Acetyltransferase (GNAT) family protein (Pseudidiomarina indica), 185 residues
Amino acid sequence: MIEYRHLTTTDYDAVIELGNRIHGDNYLTLESLADYDRRGRVGAANLNWLAFLDGELAGIRLTFAPGQWELDAQCSPGQWPFPAEQLCYFKCAAVDPKTRGTGIGRELLNRSIAGAKTLGCRAGLAHIWMQSPGNAAFEYFTHCGGQLIREHPNRWHDLSLYEGYHCPVCDGICYCSAAEMLLIF
C-alpha cells in the first residue's frame, strides 16, 4: 500500500539518501533540504510530498511556492505565459528504481500541483536533467504535460565546482544540460 504525506524534519535523512542515490552525492544536504522544505511552505500550504511503500520511502517531490524561488540566468520569463508570481518551481523529484512505473511520481506531482493552485499558481517551472539515464526525466515531465521552453547547457556546473555536488553521469564536474520546462495547470 502506498502512503502519501507531507515532508517533515523526521524524514530528512531518508530523503537525502534517496535524492543523492538518484541524482548524485551532495545533490541534497541537510542544509539544502531544510532550505527547500522552508521554500515549499506558505502558511498552511505545504508543497513538499513523500510516498512510502510498505513503510519505506519510495518517492519525493520538493516544490517551491511562488515567491520562494529566484529567477536566474537559466530562466526565460519572457517566454512564459504567466508571471513568476503565478508559478511554483518543481525543484526535485526522485522515485526509487524499485517502484518506478507504479504511478508514484505522477501522484506526487499532482499533490504538489493541488497545493500550488491554492496559492494562486497557474503553472510550474522546472529545470529537467537531460542526461538522466535514458533521458527518463525529460520523457516523464513531457508525458505529464511539460512544455520545453529552452535548453540550458552546464546547469549544475557551478554546483559541482563549488558546493561538492558529484554528478553521477559526468563522474564529478557536471556538464549536464537542463531543459527549462513549463507545466500549465
Remarks:
- The two ends are 28 Å apart (CA to CA).
- Residues 2-184 form a domain with the Aminopeptidase fold (CATH 3.40.630.30).
- The mean pLDDT is 94.
- The chain has one domain: 2-184.
